[in-house]
Specification:
Low-confidence stretches: none
Mean pLDDT: 94
Helix content: 25-40%
Number of strands: 6
Bound molecules: adenosine-5'-triphosphate
Number of helices: 8
Distance between the termini: 68 Å
Largest sheet: 6 strands, parallel
Structural class: alpha/beta
Length: 221
């Protein structure tokens, strides 16, 4: 419409180790594209996780599994910027880069409730909400108690309407209940290591990639 500034649709950002990516990540991404009317959702595999040991599976292989998993889903993308950066993959650095590239576009940083419960341990955690909205998705089995700083963040920033994300570039917090899928990468690694099937927990292409490359196999003693 004439006279009304056009605001770009929000970009969703889902960072993780993706070791490997599974249907819990993918279904959450698709549902959030619809719920929040996102322009796109970017999976951002981390190279060097700040809070856990560096995975045995390389960042390149983890990213390749993401790429194969999202084939044919036009709104889902993989963004490899953390693979190109040296040092720990801090989310705040990633958001600063994205903000430089998208000055006024709403950015939605998505995380599971387990990750949100640990947010105050993240590098420069209090800068995140200035750079992006936070979208916290329920995760089966994860109901972390929130410390006083997170409770304050919720009181200050929580909104209930997904549409609000379109009217500001950052600064809001939204909880979303999605289809609960009790799938985790660690359980997938455990199953593969035990010689069990992971079919229908991951896309077929990811299943095939893991088997073809012998990932997550128990090492002989
Ligand atoms: P691991 O079991 O190795 O800890 P993970 O399954 O939690 O891995 P990550 O790559 O660490 O996978 O997760 C990336 C993000 O996706 C995190 O914010 C996490 O909370 C969220 N997430 C992972 N699995 C699910 C799920 N089944 N439902 C909702 N959110 C999820």
């Amino acid at each position: 419409m004439w006279g009304v500034p056009r605001v770009a649709k929000p970009i969703g950002i889902l960072g993780g180790t993706f070791n490997p990516i599974h249907l819990g990540h993918l279904r959450s991404g698709v549902e959030l594209c619809d719920r929040l009317d996102l322009a796109e959702l970017r999976f951002i595999p981390c190279a060097i996780p700040p809070h856990r040991p560096v995975p045995e599976v390389s960042a390149t292989a983890r990213s390749e599994m993401v790429r194969q998993a999202i084939q044919g889903a036009p709104q889902l993308r993989v963004d490899e910027r953390e693979l190109r950066r040296a040092g720990p993959s801090y989310t705040v650095d990633t958001l600063r880069e994205l903000r430089q590239e998208n000055a006024s576009t709403p950015l939605c940083l998505i995380m599971g409730s387990d990750a949100f419960g640990n947010l105050t341990t993240w590098h420069e955690w209090d800068q995140l909400i200035d750079l992006a909205h936070l979208i916290v998705i329920s995760r089966p089995g994860a109901r972390p108690s929130l410390n006083s700083r997170l409770s304050q963040l919720v009181r200050d920033c929580e909104v209930n309407d997904a549409r609000s994300m379109h009217h500001a570039a950052s600064g809001l917090l939204l909880f979303q209940e999605l289809t609960p899928l009790a799938i985790s990468s660690s359980e997938i690694r455990r199953l593969v290591g035990a010689g069990k099937s992971i079919r229908y927990l991951v896309p077929d292409a990811v299943n095939d990639y893991i088997l073809a490359n012998g990932l997550y196999q128990e090492k002989p003693p």
